[in-house]
Amino acid sequence: MNTILINSLAIVFAVSTACNSGETASTGEVQHENHGEMTTSAESGNPQFKDEKAKNVYQHYIHLKTALVKSDVKEAKAGAEALNKAFSSAGNIKGAALAAKIASSADLKAQRNNFDVLSAEVEAFIRKAGLKSGKVYKQYCPMAKSGDGAYWLASESEVNNPYYGDQMLHCGEVTEEIK
Fold it and tell me: CB–CB of 129/18 below 8 Å?
């Protein structure tokens, strides 16, 4: 019984330490931004896009991300379906297929497991389209994907983790501001 308790405490400590360490996976450099702490007011990037199609893709991506943060499978499906249509309208077949894969799943873990690849596709799409004003925050959680880490995009600097939701809501950090 004591061994189970000690092992459980060790796991909790390891997860907590890794999440709040402030080190990036690629460089190991300490970041002094949002080390996962809860903030009372987040800086809003208020991104405005040069292209209406990019605006639609990003808007539906944020819908999906927010649903994953809230661990809402049904709303995540709806957001992914809308994102699929937005990518299709923009002629981005790869993005549409990635969104469709998430939309076809009724399992939160599977939806989250595919979110990093979709996030990379959305990032590439909005970078190519360009921002008219504001910024998008690229965020990273070192614990996501079984400790491999994963990125996502947000309109605010406050970290709200789509890979863990309430389990580790503010685990992560801002790694870049896309302008």
Answer: no
Distance (Å, rounded) from C-alpha 156 to C-alpha 47? 10
Q: CB under 8 Å to 168, separation ≥6 — which residues?
A: 15, 19, 36, 141, 143, 161
CA distance 150 to 45: 21
- Spatial contact of 143 and 168, defined as CB atoms under 8 Å apart: yes
Three-class DSSP category at 4: helix
Residue the block writes with tokens 């070192």: 142
* Residue 99 identity (one-letter amino acid): A
pTM: 0.78
- β-strands 136-141, 131-133 pairing: unpaired
Q: What's 52-69 look like in SS3?
A: HHHHHHHHHHHHHHHHHH
pLDDT 10s digits, 5-36 = 344 333 433 444 445 444 333 333 323 333 33
| Residues 170 and 136 sit within 8 Å (Cβ to Cβ) | no
State which residues form the domain around 132: 3-178
Question: What distance in Å separates the CA atoms of residue 68 and residue 34, rounded to the nearest whole number?
Answer: 20
